[in-house]
Amino acid sequence: MDTLAMHISNGIINGPVAAVFAAFALAALALCVVRGRQDLDDRLAPMAGLVAAFIFAVQMLNFPIFTGAVSGHLLGGALAAILVGPWVGALCVAVVLIVQALVFGDGGVAMLGLNITNMAVLGTAVAYLLVALLLRLLPRTVSGLAVTAFVASVVSVLAASQGFVVQYWLGGTTDLGSGLAGLAGTMAGVHLLIGVGEGLITATTVVTVAKIRPDLVHALRGRTVASPGTPPVPAAGGAR
Amino acid sequence: MGAGHAHVLYRDRMSPVHRLPPEVKIMAMVVFTIAVVATPREAFWAFGGYALLILLVAALARIGPGWLATRALIELPFVVFAFALPFLGRGERVHWLGLDLSVDGLYGCWNILAKGTLGVLASLLLAATTTMRDLLLGLDRLRCPQIVTQIATFMLRYLDVLVGEARRMRIARISRGDDPRFLWQLRGFAAGVGALFLRAFERGERVYLAMVARGYQGRMPDAWGGSGAATARHWLVAATVPLTATGMAAAAVVLG
Q1: Are the CB atoms for A92 and A50 separated by under 8 Å?
Q2: Domain count, chain A
């Protein structure tokens, strides 16, 4: 039930609502393209590709939760926001969704706008805002960064799942009545668990990258992380 | 890996559908899917017509119905939700085999199953007849912003890098006495995921710099070559399928 909810397939949400969200997603992506172009340099281009590939691979791992009937997958919005910034990050997630819809039939093509709105736009935006806030508040240490990555992942996954509930409320093809509250609850519960898994993976990845190549972490640009006990960073062009 | 980054779903055949330029196929598939979704759910005959269209194209592309059916099982977890609808929906109820079902919910279930399956079949046909490289070329020719095609190109290229690097790290772990079995693998995987990312990045960065050194500026050479782009005839031929579908959808809306 959950897999479906994140990758909405054709016919679950009615046409007019899907069209409105497609227009919204298109406008948001256009903004990302304009702003992302300024960000994308020789260092970020391969990083963006790798982040997208990583998210693609990770989304293929479906976690069975409780039983086989409920399963979910990671979203990757927080990872993208931290490593490549909000604009390129949203584009990375959107590219993954577009390729999945076109080639694998994972999420309907007509529902692409809804899926992009939930996972690429909402998920990345929430994660980025949280990261920007938490990095100011928390101590500039490795554990501060880990907590930031973890919290941003959990909240962004929850936000994306509730995005689906709002869309279903606006244009679900079957009237669930009071069942909608149940849907919201189930989605939140399941995604809390997914969020914890995603948070652990995101935090581990980001911390490893930040320790060894802090220059690659977009969220840390212009900041220094005090990390006693980590080996000194080799100069650019050093041992490869 | 040397085979031009073909993906698992690609069926290497010689057929008129395979030979169509990719941009034409992408547009045809998108328009077809929108027509299917726009069809009112009560118009059962129209869905039969769409299924017939899919089968016709599959036959033309020499894709077996058995292959399509097996691959379409991918949508199964997605539509589990649909089977809950007859029980959750409100309004008029019917009794069938001792079950108390909602009519609106039954229609909703049918709606999701029919539209979901047709959408999956359409994208499977696209995937089976188009390589990844062609798909990206098609998106580029459809004026998809360069930054998007660039990310997609690297994503596909780096998927292989990532998989290869993961395999190497697993072999390295095993040869050092690790015994990965079932859930125990997770711990090793979790501990190595950051390292995997970094190693894949450094490999990917070398690939990128090698491409830049050979004149890469954000577009693959095929894209600015312009040969093999769709002609008016290609568009006309490929338009037959989505136009028929749109006609059926319009008829279903008017009649329904």
Answers
A1: no
A2: 1
Task: Determine the distance from the C-alpha atom of residue A91 to the mean position of all C-alpha atoms in its chain, rounded to a whole number.
Answer: 10
For residue B85, list chain A residues with Cβ-Cβ distance below 8 A: 174
Residues B220 and B234 in one domain: no
CB contact under 8 Å between A110 and B154, yes or no, is: no
CATH at residue A168: 1.10.1760.20
Helix (H, G, I), strand (E, B) or coil at B149: helix
Which residue from B45, B47, B27 is spatially nearest to B37, judged by alpha carbons? B47
Q: Which pTM was predicted?
A: 0.81
**pLDDT, tens digit, 9 for 90 and up, residues A62-107:** 554 443 334 556 778 888 888 888 888 899 989 988 888 887 766 6
Q: Which of B112, B154, B198 sits opposite A49 (nearest CB)?
A: B154
What does the alpha-carbon distance between residue B115 and residue B33 come to, in Å, rounded to a whole number? 8
Residue B256 per-residue DSSP state? -
Q: Does B246 touch chain A (CB under 8 A)?
A: no
**Are residues B201 and B119 part of one domain?**
no
Q: Which of A12, A110, A179 faces B33 most closely, judged by CB atoms?
A: A110
> Whole-angstrom Cα distance, residue B121 to residue B29?
10
Interface confidence (ipTM) of the complex: 0.79
What residues in B contact A56, CB-CB < 8 Å?
155, 159
CA angle B154, A51, B184 (to 5 degrees): 120
In this complex, which of B159, B198, B204 lies closest to A57 when CB atoms are compared? Answer: B159
